[in-house]
Amino acid sequence: MTRRALLSLLPGYLAAAEKKHKPKPGNLPPQRGEFVWFADPVTENIVVRLTNPEHCSFLPNSENRFVSSREAFLVFSSDRTGTVTPYRANLRTGAVAPIGAAKTLAARSLALDRREREVYLIDGGELKAIDLRRLRPRTLAENVGDFHVAGPKNEIVIRRQQKLQLIAQKEKTWIADGAASRGIVNPAGTGCAFMRQETPGENQFWYVAFGGGKPVLLTKGRISAPFWRPDAKALLFLRAVERERYTASELREVALDGSPERLIAETSQFATFAPNGDGSVIVGASRSRAQPDLVLLLREERREMVLCEHQAKQPAAVSPAFSPNSQRVYFESDREGKSALYSVNVESLVEQTRDQE
After folding, report:
1. Taking the mean position of all CA atoms in its chain, how far away is CA 190?
2. How far is C-alpha 193 from the chain's CA centre?
3. Which of 47, 75, 253, 337 has the fewest Cβ atoms surrounding its Cβ within 10 A?
4. Are strands 262-267 and 270-275 parallel, antiparallel or unpaired?
5. DSSP conformation class of 6
6. Could you give the angle at the alpha carbon of 322 between the alpha carbons of 320 and 328, nearest 5°?
7. What is the mean pLDDT of each run of 10 residues along the chain (357 residues)?
């Protein structure tokens, strides 16, 4: 399906809104700090490059909270000093400042806490929290391979030697053994999902409730990219399905109530994705070589719209994510040589949502 065909599927009121509010490419704002505005060559939507591509910059995992809803800043990591270290970008001024030093930072591990006062990260196998005002680090756990934090009380699940451990209210509880991936805490903070490899190319998704529950198998097969639905009642994911001439990338969901797995839509070859604040819109990065695009999928209508080209060599690393209020989309791309961060305004296309955190 061509880009023009995809655009033609967009409901009329959205297409009209896009045309009305789209800035003219000739009237772009001047450079601000490291921020540079340009018009996407395919859609003419205005894209902002947030970091200088002379250095490698990396977004956190898209499941992590990395954009502030209160003070307009974004946390990321970069090798601009020669070593990958954590940074904060002011989304109003474009100024970039370091958060602290790091020895061997896990580049995509950065995550803001619920109150946006601390940023969690993994450095040298240690889970650390850095106070964003005083820039003072503290160590929460050692020998950590990965982690995820979410929920109203900052529930943290860490992975240690293929085992998952819950850190909540200063107590640590083992919740799963033999986990191949980190546990992704649901938005309600009541449990987490994790992945185990069944065979090469095939995976299993499991769910474990906090408070003594046993892991429950949700689904298995050629599945990837698990992401919680914002209401915490179902897990979204991608399933590869063989067609006559191609391999389809289907967006699906499986609920925690035991109901059958449900198809949401066949996507334009999504390699990775993320929902907006209420789950009504999905942003995905296509792995198509002919059309390396960033795409909006309207869930109920099962219709897509191309936002811009991402042109990344590794589409899975694009890691697109909505801002907490669903008014911007952030993504990563090495389109200009080295990995840099970008954003696109979608306020005329996606309704503003309330920050659930």
Report:
1. 21
2. 16
3. 337
4. unpaired
5. H
6. 105
7. 41 43 64 90 95 96 93 95 95 93 95 95 97 94 96 94 88 91 95 94 96 92 97 97 91 95 95 96 95 95 95 95 95 96 95 77
